[in-house]
Design brief:
Layout: H1 3-15, E1 18-26, E2 32-38, H2 42-47, E3 50-53, E4 67-72, E5 78-79, E6 88-97, H3 108-120, E7 124-140, E8 143-148, H4 164-176, E9 181-186, E10 192-197, E11 200-201, H5 202-222, E12 225-228, E13 242-250, E14 253-254, H6 267-278, H7 280-287, H8 293-296, E15 306-307, E16 309-310, E17 318-319, E18 330-332, H9 341-358, H10 375-380, E19 384-385, H11 390-398, H12 401-407, H13 409-428, H14 432-438
């Protein structure tokens, strides 16, 4: 970080009348964390970084190796538009470093940057464009409920969609923060919404996912609502997904497009799809990280659960949307918005690059609705099933050396601790369903 860049940033902070800065980073689970500093400390933050105790952050380090340093990324500076302008609050997204200045191997942002640098060795830039769905629920006595705020349906308008004002305010706030919003609409389920923003390189996009969730939750809370990105908050209706549109660019040109190839999809694109499908079970542990995630990945609610691809079929795990040319992309449909986007994009990129480098050919694309196939038909077509729960998905991750190497041993060990604790707590809890099912009968 040059002295000129730091000087320019300090001038901008003074012009914006910033009183406090939030230095944001994420833990292993993708939860945003921050250290707040007064504006007079920003010079120190930009030159030396700000130290903090990493032992209290999920998946970071043990107490005997807890000293960490936050290094702000100047490109992520933005004002928080919901705070008063006369005493502005701004934020930086930070890289987490060790005291010697080296990247911390447990920092999700550094993990993704490492994967992108590996792809850059072959000249590729990984671009992603996620579509985040979320629910807006009522609050009761300061606590979230699962009571719907509206009864709208897919693409409904007001007055059915009572949350349209909130969605509009969130879009205005996100636009002020530098987002290029492409679309927003009511989703299929009651009180379910989607706001789509423009694709970018995966690191910038992952930053935007974290900012998006943080901003929407904050704006909802200011209106007395709870924005939930939980994968499946209510039984019997659609869950919330985070479909990820992705592509590789080389020398500024979309590497997935070939006007003379079948479906106009290049060999690079086909091999990338092959890699995604090969490593899909392991990616699932990262893209669907909670017990609840697997309540969404069931037939009948638009979420994929079968390892397949198609140029049109929305029941497939990987879909190729219609646009071609520079808009050629593949849509990976299994992730949900509880995932850590840095780690999810890392796993997807590592899988896709394995496909490209190893020239992995995908199976034939599937035109028929897979949900309507029998198990025998799926078997005949070689269509396997995604892991059915967190325990199975974590076993698949540990069995996949490529994805584990991309994440690094520190992250894999921490994910193992989280999965074991979560699964054991779930496995030993007596749930209301069991009481309803068995208490009177037995």
């Amino acid at each position: 970080m040059s002295a000129d860049n730091i000087s320019t940033m300090l001038e901008r902070i003074e012009q914006d009348n910033v009183r406090f800065l939030r230095l944001q980073f994420t833990d292993l689970l993708g939860m945003p964390k921050n250290v707040s500093i007064p504006a007079k400390q920003v010079g120190k933050a930009l030159t030396d970084g700000i130290g903090f105790d990493g032992s209290s952050i999920e998946g970071f380090v043990r107490i005997e190796e807890s000293d960490m340093v936050l290094k702000p990324d100047l490109s992520t500076y933005t004002l928080l538009p919901w705070r008063p302008r006369e005493k502005s609050v701004a934020r930086f997204i930070c890289d987490v470093c060790k005291p010697d200045g080296k990247p911390f191997e447990g920092d999700p942002r550094s993990v993704l940057r490492r994967a992108m640098e590996d792809a850059a060795k072959d000249g590729y830039v990984f671009n992603t464009g996620p579509e985040l769905e979320f629910f807006l629920f009522k609050m009761l006595d300061g606590r979230p409920t699962t009571q719907f705020e509206d009864v709208g349906g897919y693409f409904d308008l007001a007055p059915t969609d009572l949350a349209e004002d909130l969605r509009r305010e969130a879009i205005l706030a996100l636009t002020e923060m530098g987002f290029d919003i492409e679309a927003s609409h009511h989703e299929v389920a009651e009180s379910q919404h989607e706001i789509d923003f423009k694709y970018s390189d995966a690191l910038h996009t992952a930053d935007n996912v974290i900012t998006f969730k943080f901003a929407v939750k904050t704006m909802a809370l200011m209106r007395g609502l709870h924005a939930s990105f939980m994968a499946k908050p209510i039984h019997g209706i659609n869950g919330s997904g985070m479909h990820v549109n992705c592509s590789l660019a080389k020398d500024g040109v979309n590497a997935f497009y070939d006007p003379d190839a079948p479906l106009q999809l290049s060999k690079t694109c086909m091999h990338f799809i092959g890699g995604l499908l090969k490593h899909a079970p392991a990616i699932t542990r990262i893209a669907n990280p909670t017990i609840n995630s697997y309540k969404r990945l069931v037939p009948g609610y638009e979420a994929p659960c079968y390892i397949s691809w198609s140029a049109s079929n929305r029941s497939a795990l990987v879909r190729v949307p219609a646009p071609r040319g520079n808009s050629t992309r593949v849509e990976f449909r299994s992730p949900d918005p509880t995932c850590n986007p840095y780690l999810a994009f890392t796993a997807m990129l590592a899988a896709g690059m394995d496909g490209v480098r190893s020239e992995i050919e995908p199976p034939d694309d599937v035109h028929k609705n897979i949900f309507h196939m029998t198990s025998a038909e799926r078997g005949h077509n070689g269509i396997a099933t995604l892991p059915g729960d967190l325990h199975e998905a974590h076993r698949a991750l540990l069995a996949d050396d490529l994805i584990c190497n991309a994440l690094g041993p520190h992250v894999v060990d921490a994910l193992t601790s989280v999965a074991e604790a979560e699964w054991d707590a779930y496995r030993t809890t007596v749930h209301p369903w069991e009481i309803d099912r068995y208490l009177a009968t037995y």
